[in-house]
Each structure stands twice: as structure tokens, then as C-alpha cells.
Specification:
alpha/beta; Spore Coat Polysaccharide Biosynthesis Protein SpsA, Chain A; 10-stranded mixed β-sheet; 14 helices; binds 2-acetamido-2-deoxy-beta-D-glucopyranose
């Protein structure tokens, strides 16, 4: 080899050697990736998700959901999933709070049907439907917080304070119930996702039930995860990959590869479980946007990031993403996310 190389001019020889090194490194890299993928797939297949009929811990759960134009998923999946979950948790251990605002489709009709079903099972609940749409709010005379002068020179309603307000409404019955001596251990925030009762039990059990917040992973078009807005790694960095293993930061990356609860600064992916206590503290934890003065300099922060920053439990108990709990915004995405290989594809 050496002799053959020696017949070439020196500069060419150097290039040839460099190419060879690059090629070897590339092969090593690919081989390492294959080995790793194999190990991870084995780990996944060995991680038994135990299908339970009941949650592991006896806890009282307050379920909060906000709805806007969700008729399709309510009728196809969500209403059934909520009904089944309430039944498995036990109607005496749950409360369901749903706030719907100004849907264009027949979300209200779907919620009326859900209400009847929950009534049949004696599940305590508050399903509030509002006719005020986001468009109405935009058209209303600008006053108070939540408005910003945009680059176009117009005064516009900010989306985040609006969403914060709607999410806050879904927490209102919590206070009324507390006044009546009815308390809850955890709050489960549900997005318009496809999930099973078992996904919820697994989520509630994240890190042996000890967390300031535990989130599922959400998929709309797997392998790309959905909610990029609220997800931040353990160092608070947004620079995550759109596909598995999602994180560059060491502790988040390591946990994801080992299918352990992933420590993050913030998440709001599909389903979120949080202890109820901070929401009843004085002052109570609430969703909020950043002040209008900051938003006018085009800074915006998700109401869902801020809630973890505001939560006094976050530093001590941690915010986790549970890679064993994967939900989808439609049935196809849900099914793909359950497939061992599909959601790992890069
Ligand atoms: C959130 O809820 C609290 C209490 O209900 C309220 O005082 C606050 O203004 C709300 N925040 C927003 C952004 O609507
Ligand atoms: C239901 O919740 C809404 C806020 O979302 C609240 O205004 C209303 O008083 C609640 N109703 C009951 C009966 O608790």
C-alpha cells in the first residue's frame, strides 16, 4: 500500500490518505449508529409497558381541557377515551373541566353528547361553552392587557394572553371545589389527542409519581414531534432535533436513549400531569403571557413555558417528558408512534 502511494506526488498522496481516513470514520460512524439503534430497539422491546386496568397509585385527578373546533376528534376518539378514563379512575376520584370557546364546527354538539355520557356514569364535571370566538375578541375595542402594536402599525390581540385566559377558565372550578372541601392530587391537562387510559396511567406514574410536571410526547406527522413551541431541554435550549432522539443536551439525550423520564425545562406535548397544590396556593399558579411591553418588541413566550418557570415545584421536583407515553393528533399518528421502529426513524 505504502509503496503504491509513494509513486504519487506528495499533495495527491495527502488527499488520498485524508479521503481514506474520512471514509473509515464515516463507516465507523454508520456502524456505531446501527449498533446503537439495535441496542435501543432491544431496550424498547424489553421495556414492558404494563397494561393496567387501574392507575398504580390511588390519586384524585382533575382533568382540564380547552376545546376549539375539535368536533372530529371528539366524536372519533376523544369523548370515548375521556369516558373510559373516568370510569377506570373511578367517577368518585375525578372531576372533568372543559372550556369551549367559539368553535366554527359543531364542537358544542359533540360536548353535549359527552356531557350526557358522563352524566350516565355520574362523573362530576363542568362543561362550559362560550359563544365568544377568537375573532370576536379581535374585533372588540382594544383595551386592557393582551394587545400589542404590530409592525403593521395595528393594535392586535395577542394569541398567548388569549390562550392563557381560556386555559385559566378551565381551572376555575378547582377553586370552587376547594371551597367545598373537595381536593385533588394531580391535574391532567389534555390536548385534542388520541390516547388510551393506559397512556394516562403511565404518565401519572412518571418518575414514580414525583414531578412538578410530566408530559407525553406528541406526534402529528411522525417521526417529527409536534409541539416545538413549549419543549426545552434540561438547559432550557430550544435547539432540539425534530426527530428522535430530539435532544442534544447530555442529560436529556441520555435519558431519551435509555427510555427514562427525560429531564426538561419545559414541555407541553399532548398530555401534561401536574400536582394540583400550586394551583391552589396563594397566589395561585396560573397561565400567563409576558407583558405587552415585551411583546411589542416581538418577543413572545408560550403560556405553557411560563407555567413551568412560575411553578415553585419545578426546581425541586423536576419537569419530565416520558418517552414511554406517546400520543397523536390523529389515529394514524398515534398508531405510528406506537410502532417501535417508526418513531425512531431519523
Ligand atoms: C389567569 O387567571 C387568573 C385568575 O383567574 C387571572 O387573574 C389572570 O388575569 C389570568 N391571566 C390571563 C392572562 O388571563
Ligand atoms: C363552570 O366553570 C366556569 C368557568 O370555566 C365558571 O364560570 C362556572 O361558574 C362553573 N360552574 C360551576 C357550576 O361550577
Amino acid at each position: 500500500m505504502k509503496n503504491l502511494l509513494a509513486t504519487y506526488p506528495r499533495s495527491f498522496r495527502r488527499t488520498l490518505i485524508r479521503n481514506r481516513i474520512v471514509r473509515s470514520l464515516l463507516i465507523l460512524f454508520i456502524a456505531w449508529n446501527l449498533v446503537e439503534l439495535h441496542l435501543i430497539l432491544r431496550r424498547i422491546s424489553e421495556t414492558d409497558i404494563i397494561y393496567r386496568e387501574q392507575p398504580r397509585r390511588h390519586e384524585r385527578i382533575y382533568i382540564a381541557m380547552v376545546n376549539w373546533n375539535n368536533e372530529f376528534i371528539l366524536r372519533s376518539h376523544l369523548s370515548k377515551a375521556i369516558t373510559e378514563l373516568s370510569w377506570k379512575l373511578g367517577p368518585e376520584n375525578v372531576y372533568i373541566s372543559i372550556y369551549e370557546s367559539g368553535s366554527y364546527d359543531n364542537t358544542k354538539g359533540a360536548l353535549v353528547d359527552l356531557d350526557a355520557e358522563l352524566d350516565r356514569l355520574n362523573v362530576p364535571r363542568n362543561i362550559t361553552m362560550s359563544s365568544i370566538t377568537h375573532a370576536d375578541e379581535i374585533a372588540a375595542p382594544p383595551e386592557g392587557e393582551g394587545w400589542v402594536i404590530t409592525p403593521r402599525g395595528k393594535k392586535e390581540l395577542r394569541r398567548i394572553p388569549y390562550l392563557s385566559r381560556v386555559r385559566n377558565y378551565s381551572l376555575e372550578p378547582l377553586h370552587e371545589l376547594a371551597k367545598q372541601g373537595i381536593h385533588f392530587d394531580k391535574i391532567l391537562f389534555l390536548n385534542d389527542v388520541v390516547f388510551t387510559s393506559n397512556d394516562v396511567f403511565e404518565l401519572l406514574d412518571t418518575n414514580d409519581g414525583d414531578y412538578a410536571a410530566a408530559c407525553s410526547l406528541d406526534f402529528s406527522k411522525p417521526p417529527y414531534y409536534y409541539d416545538t413551541f413549549a419543549l426545552r431541554d434540561a438547559h432550557g435550549h430550544e435547539a432540539v432535533m425534530p426527530t428522535w432522539p430530539f435532544f442534544r443536551e447530555f442529560s436529556s439525550h441520555y435519558a431519551m436513549k435509555n427510555l427514562l423520564p427525560v429531564p426538561v425545562k419545559s414541555c407541553w406535548n399532548g398530555m401534561v400531569a401536574m400536582p394540583a397544590a400550586p394551583f391552589l396556593a396563594n397566589p395561585p399558579l396560573r397561565f400567563r403571557g409576558i407583558p405587552d411591553s415585551l411583546a411589542s418588541s416581538h418577543l413572545e413566550a408560550s403560556e405553557c413555558c411560563l407555567i413551568h418557570a412560575d411553578n415553585p415545584l419545578s426546581t425541586q421536583h423536576g419537569v419530565y417528558l416520558n418517552p414511554l407515553v406517546r400520543v397523536g393528533y390523529n389515529t394514524a399518528a398515534y398508531d405510528t408512534s406506537l410502532d417501535d421502529v417508526s418513531w425512531l426513524r431519523r
